[in-house]
Amino acid sequence: MMQKLCKAAATATVLLAAAPAFSLQSDSRQPIEIEADSGSLDQKNQTTTFSGNVIIKQGTLNIHAAAVTVSRNDKGEQQMKASGSPVRFSQTLDGDKGTVNGQGNTVEYASATGLVKLTGNAQVKRGGDIAQGSVITYNTRSEVYTIDGTAKSGVRSAAKSGRVSVVIQPSSKP
């Protein structure tokens, strides 16, 4: 039982790598808490699955999903897929920069590429800034975001027009 719990917690750390680059530094030193209606570990296939109102917390990072699957290949590379209606996450940022909130019908992360992908009704908010589209991809290594609308991806956009929608507030500094 303890081995399963430790393995599940270890594989859930891939979720936390998907968090924004400017999250609170202290979050990574906090324990990972996972709650779900059920969970399973397949050691042979190196896959952990949580389902039913999955809640993952580490410091200020909160992830809510219907189901989360984390797998690892022979090279130690991890992949995570969370699904829900929608998957929601929030995290406090360093330097009094507020909180980032996001959502997507599915959220995927691959450690090999460092890409986080929110698909279906994708949205990220920080303060008054909002990015919406059908797919939002974030490269955690280069810190580059790309946003696609319905026409390009074929997936429903969070923006009512089906196109990419971005609102950027003016800088408070002169």
UniProtKB/TrEMBL annotation:
Pfam families: LptD_N (PF03968). Its main location: periplasm. It comes from the Bacteria. Residues 33-143 form the Organic solvent tolerance-like N-terminal domain. Residues 1-23 form the signal peptide. InterPro entries: LPS_export_LptA (IPR052037), LptA (IPR014340), OstA-like_N (IPR005653). Keywords: Periplasm, Signal, Transport. It is found in: Periplasm. NCBIfam families: outer_YhbN_LptA. Belongs to the LptA family. Involved in the assembly of lipopolysaccharide (LPS). Required for the translocation of LPS from the inner membrane to the outer membrane. Component of the lipopolysaccharide transport and assembly complex. This is Lipopolysaccharide export system protein LptA. It comes from Neisseria lisongii.
